């Protein structure tokens, strides 16, 4: 049975958000990261719908057809949590399961604390729950950038990255998707110095499409959307790091007690940077953690690279709620 995609523009309060739905049942809201779109969940939407769930994927604030505020502070937790609560309210949903990837995962980790009573469970991809840094993130990244190129540091200054990536969206998207995938070792870009380099200078050149997990038509959708919008909205999530950190100085993280599944690609650079110990340490931060899945051979975009395995893990977790 196939389920028709339902596209909405929702008034979430301070932002208009593009939402795509399939199916009916317990709602599952999926939040992407950089450089993503609702389309990053294209394999999860029909699988969840076919299993009897109401699958909901967003263009997050700053992306696609959703609002794209110019100020980085508009991407702090106050605003981004309000977006997700606003989506629930607009769709008349009291409580939902939330899935997050990359920046979407970082936001969703905070949701049970910041929106109590609205979160039934979490399905988190790629970014584990970690303690808040004792120093502002930009200070940490600036220190790292003294040793080698660090994209999160390069992205902090408004202008250079926006112009570089926006001038060549097709080349950037292909190269970053490839560099972060299981087909490449992303940490190899650390051999490059920060001085004199932009992101395209250090990323590997991607092999020609199609790849096993990304067709030419699928890639064309990403290029079409980012060619229209540019990358500033997505980059502002990086530029909001210190704003979020400051919010948490006044509102420290609480343990995540709702039922939680975590899933990561074995070759995800986030896991490689943090080390496997990060998964073991998560128990203290997430007492609700039930399942951890490490997908062999997959990289950062695990929901696309290993869609069948991700879908199976999600459905097994949901069935036990």
UniProtKB/TrEMBL annotation:
GO MF, one annotated term: hydrolase activity
Q: Which InterPro entries match?
A: AB_hydrolase_1 (IPR000073), AB_hydrolase_fold (IPR029058), Epox_hydrolase-like (IPR000639)
Domain AB hydrolase-1 stretches: 27-127
Pfam families associated with the record: Abhydrolase_1
Q: Could you confirm whether the keyword Nucleotidyltransferase appears in this record?
A: no
- Domain of life, per lineage: Bacteria
The UniProt keyword set, sorted, is:
Hydrolase
> Does the keyword Hydrolase belong to this entry?
yes
Matching entries from PANTHER family are given as:
EPOXIDE HYDROLASE
Q: What is this protein called?
A: Pimeloyl-ACP methyl ester carboxylesterase
**Species name:** Actinomadura luteofluorescens
